[in-house]
């Protein structure tokens, strides 16, 4: 099976090591990993093979590489893996970690997260229609709970998607201590940067009041 880890022999061949390191960084840092539909496919697929040009590598090699990185001691990490500080926060590694975390929750089924958590993780995902930064995550969310399902409606404007999603996030939160103004403001900030909206504080508060008011009457 292919491996990303640079061997002791490779490190002796400095030119080879530089080439391997550059290739790893180039692959892991591509914007490809930020595309919303790629994110969805990676997190939902049961079996993954990554193709790059004429080359193929099984997703298990990505996970093995991550497991190798987390086992590296802090003392020798820089010497053995000079690229570690750049690889760990890369676009690809973020998906590797999320997929490992999700699949470790159950033996046969993916873990399904709540929409607010997915928005926090993938707010900067790339797509042609900015509304898909919300709608494209719906296939990943948990359907458990008593709240109504989220309906993707492309007749809504971006501003309407913001309002609808903000209300959904509030109403789908079942923990009473999370249904406060502070939490709603957090949701509002996440949605603003997700949908690239520059609302003023006054507009944000007005939107929040529309949601809170019926609950307090």
Describe this structure as you would to a colleague.
A two-stranded antiparallel ribbon has the order 1-2. 55% of the residues lie in helices and 4% in strands. The protein is mostly helical and 217 residues long. The model has no long low-confidence stretch (mean pLDDT 80). The longest helix has 16 residues, at 201-216.
List the helices and strands and how they pair.
Layout: H1 8-12, H2 14-28, H3 36-44, E1 49-52, E2 55-58, H4 59-71, H5 77-80, H6 84-87, H7 91-103, H8 115-122, H9 132-135, H10 158-171, H11 181-194, H12 201-216
Antiparallel strand pairs: 1-2
Helix pairs in contact: 8-11, 10-11, 11-12
Q: Note poorly predicted spans.
A: none
Total strand count, please? Answer: 2
Mean pLDDT: 80
What structural class should be given to the helix and strand makeup? Answer: mainly alpha
- β-sheet strand percentage: under 5%
How many distinct helices? 12
What is the radius of gyration?
Answer: 21 Å
Please tell me what the overall shape is. Answer: elongated
Distance between the termini: 63 Å
What strand order characterises the main sheet?
1-2
SSE order, one letter for each helix or strand: HHHEEHHHHHHHHH
**Which percent bin holds the helix content?**
40-55%
Major β-sheet profile: 2 strands, antiparallel
């Amino acid at each position: 099976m292919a491996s990303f880890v640079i061997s002791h022999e490779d490190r002796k061949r400095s030119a080879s090591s530089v080439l391997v390191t550059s290739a790893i960084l180039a692959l892991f840092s591509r914007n490809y990993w930020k595309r919303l539909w790629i994110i969805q496919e990676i997190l939902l697929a049961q079996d993954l093979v990554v193709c790059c040009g004429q080359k193929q590598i099984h997703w298990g090699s990505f996970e093995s590489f991550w497991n190798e990185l987390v086992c590296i001691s802090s003392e020798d990490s820089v010497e053995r893996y000079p690229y570690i500080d750049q690889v760990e926060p890369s676009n690809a590694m973020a998906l590797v970690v999320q997929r490992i975390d999700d699949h470790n929750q159950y033996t046969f089924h993916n873990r399904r997260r709540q929409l607010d958590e997915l928005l926090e993780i993938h707010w900067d995902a790339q797509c042609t229609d900015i509304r898909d930064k919300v709608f494209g995550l719906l296939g990943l969310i948990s359907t458990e709970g008593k709240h109504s399902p989220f309906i993707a409606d492309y007749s809504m404007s971006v501003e309407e998607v913001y309002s609808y999603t903000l209300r959904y996030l509030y109403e789908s939160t079942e923990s009473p201590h999370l249904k406060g103004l502070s939490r709603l403001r957090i949701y509002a900030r996440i949605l603003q940067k997700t949908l690239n909206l520059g609302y003023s504080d006054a507009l944000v508060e007005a939107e929040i009041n529309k949601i809170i008011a019926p609950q307090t009457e």
